[in-house]
User: What shape does this take?
Amino acid sequence: MIQKKICMLGTFAVGKTSLVRRFVESIYDGKYHTTVGVKIDKKVVQAQGQEVMLLLWDLQGEESAQNLRSSYLRGTAGYLLVADGTRNDTLYAALALQAKAQETVGMVPFTLLLNKADLTEEWSISERETGALEQKGWRIIQTSAKTGAGVEEAFLTLAQKMMEG
Amino acid sequence: MSELPAPIRDCMLALTVENRTPAYLLVNGDNSLSEWGGELGDYGIPQPAAGMDVSERLPFLAGLLPLDARNLFLPYVQMATGLAADVYLFRGEQGTWVLLLDATSEVAQRQHMQQRTHDLSLQVGDLQREGGELYEAKSELEQRVRERTAELARTNQQLREELERRKAVEAELRASEARFRRIADSNMIGIMFWAMDGTISESNNAFLDMLGYTQADLQTGVLRWERVNRPENRASDERAFAQMADYGACAPYERQFTRKDGQPVALLFGAALLPDSQNKLVCFALDLASHK
Assistant: This one.
């Protein structure tokens, strides 16, 4: 079976672990548990008419891209950048991590996830900011690990892009 | 470090073996296991066998093997067994060596500290957001206070101007009253205030003299309009009242009165309605006989 490694990138407490748990186990826990190092999960999906095993590397959230350990990224076929829609600064942390990831692994498919879409009344990331990224060709999906909205789409969209590549 | 004496190296090795539960694998290019040792069961391979695909048991190896020229260090990899391991990968002549060292206790310590740090950062962020919201609310309140203060200042100024206007009007009124009072008190002409109900409220001495009454008669109510009026005035009075209804005053006309002693007297008479009144009048009178 084809195996594809996906890294979850984003600063702390944006919901990377919650997104993986929602996708793999259909579970959501509202309490924040920080991740140390890396936790790896697997899930088989269909993409491009084939079964693909996604290896999900849930990396420790880093406030600074400089702290991102490049060894974790080796061999990754794609990555999900995660930002917390209620914390504007997490978008800029995601942008810095994307630059670091591209420098480390080159041009591989990625998608930006604006998580916590269930808290839109507290949303602090503007359409102007996301619009500028979309104009650069970025794929952006709003997700909620709490409700599950957009989660399946996020992983499957990336799986498709990795298989196309 | 290569200069470390053998006893030190041996001691370090013994400590590592004792404290970090080492395990190792030698993996061929096709991910198949060829050599192994140590506590592999703790890391998820309880029954290693030659040729088994290790990436199924250790998924972090998928995509990494065969290792390229660079060695690889993956710290704090959480294993399916619950352990956390530091993973070292390096190339050997027969394949890729994978060394696993237990890092569970270090991860637990880091997790505790990192959790507190992140929780505090989130709280600080929440406080900053709340502070920002409070600052915005305070600014909005201050702006409303400024607007309200300006509005009050404008109202105050308008009130001061209104007060000044009223003072001016009152002063003008007092001056006007003084002029009128001067005319009345001079007794050059007779002046009298009366109401349609027959009450005479005020009169100067000139008017009283023309009718033979005194101020005492006026004060005691002896002097009333119906006592001094005469029936032959009806037609001329109706014309005068019609003029007053239209214009507020009537043209002077000769009018007959009855003096207190019962004698008739002809006076040149004029009247005007008092401001804002339909039944109170001010009248003047001239004694035609004395002028003739």
Notes: DSSP finds seven helices and ten strands in chain B. Chain B touches chain A at residues 55, 59-60, 62-64, 72-78, 84, 103, 107, 110-111, 114-115, 118-119, 121-122, 125 (CB under 8 Å). The two ends of chain B are 148 Å apart (CA to CA).
